[in-house]
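hiii so my PI (J.) wants the whole complex modelled not just the main chain, which honestly fair. so below is everything: two entries, each one labled with what it is. i double checked the lines twice but i was tired so who knows lol
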Amino acid sequence: NAGVTQTPKFRVLKTGQSMTLLCAQDMNHEYMYWYRQDPGMGLRLIHYSVGEGTTAKGEVPDGYNVSRLKKQNFLLGLESAAPSQTSVYFCASSYRTSGRTYNEQFFGPGTRLTVL
Amino acid sequence: AQKITQTQPGMFVQEKEAVTLDCTYDTSDQSYGLFWYKQPSSGEMIFLIYQGSYDEQNATEGRYSLNFQKARKSANLVISASQLGDSAMYFCAMRGSFYNTDKLIFGTGTRLQVFP
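here's the output for the full assembly
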């Protein structure tokens, strides 16, 4: 199993350009997430999905859009990139919460994005 | 509001010694889960250990144990017999049915350095 994979690993954009980050998981997880990690701030949730065809906003959703057309894929889009979106982006997935047991999230390797 | 606090930006420990990384949390939910993740310099997020709020025993996974004190709202990670490979960032995180979102909230992390 490949686990959680992210494409691309690195990307440099100019202000105003658009791009899509692809996340794929082969563990049949219901839940998928996009985070960004900035120095000294830990990981912050951008958007998440609790199932195919559903998405919801997280803590810092502005400037991003997402889609989950297939259960195994979760796409993160930047329509008009800004320097403030320079960050490392992590995708994660997990099984649905079962009763009082909260399952761990499995993370992809990350995408380092620089916006000039 | 839910919050994770890690008050130690950096910690040093000598090889083979034990070290405790602090984590306090704030939530009004009765049901939640606490996680620790390790992030080495290569950047990936590695799940270490999980503690459920209803678990009566402290969680242990090999050299990792979680000192869970529910009344004090603390979930400290204890690493026994430190190894050079333990040098990394460590993140405490909480997951619960916060308004039915099942989100994972991270602290800002502690950088652990193990010296010979």
